[in-house]
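Supplementary Methods, section 5.1.

A reviewer requested that the exact input to the structure prediction be made available. We therefore reproduce it here, unchanged from the version used in the analyses.
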Amino acid sequence: MHEKLVRTAERLASLGERPAPEPPDEVNAAMIRNWTQALGDTRDWGDEAPPAMAQVWSMQGLGAAKNGTAAAEVLRMLDDGGYTGVLGTDCEHSYDRPARLGERLRATMRFGDVTGPKKTAMGEGYFVTWYESWYSGEERIAEMLFRVLKFRPAQPSPEPSPDFLRPAPASVPVPRSDWPPLALPLTPTFVISTAIATRDFTPVHHDVALARAQGSQDIFLNILTTMGLVQRYVLENEPDAALASVKVRLGAPAYAGDTLTFTATRDGDTVEVLGTVSLGAHVKAAVTLR
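The structure derived from this sequence is encoded token-by-token as follows.
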């Protein structure tokens, strides 16, 4: 399978930028309200969409066919080869301007690469990278690099304790921060509602049994939510700033029942954001301000 996978990846990369499935909805206030409420973002966005929502407009929703994207063929091959687990690992956004209410965006994609097999904490897997861009007419709004780990699920974790019997998360030292730390309790409601608000219906963010069948302890925060929380933390502390780019790399999963604490250090127009959970660093992000 490996050689066929590499050949397929090379062929897809050679195709360059291609049209992606059309975002199913125009930029609208209802989706923005659901997203901001779920993430606890209290900023008044006016007639603009939060930049970190860029990918949300392209999410096709529950039950939609997962085809037509730059990486779909490679992802199907990995599923067929037993690499059925999926975990977002990296996401990088660059912003030209915010999307505005009423705009009907169009999207394009291009395939990046596939690397592996690699041994990871989740099991043996391949990293798959692709790019997506969003346009209003011919004007580009944003561009994204997205990377996932497709892995062979390890043995399921033992049966979880009921919520009220779960041990409290271990105390984690708070790193030095130029801004007040932001501590967010990751209740099951928070994990599930933010995944739905980002139109991510991957079962590991909603269904405990399916998450554990892939070797996870519990349901966990999705990468689109982490991206939004990084944006929220930065703009709550720099309300007059605008985002030029956000680069996120995930580490330890942010499981339901834990607490996610954000800290940051700023050097000029660059903000380094760290999000920690009881297992260690959940996210390291580099944010560039305009």
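Confidence is low (pLDDT under 50) at residues 160-168. These observations are discussed further in the main text.
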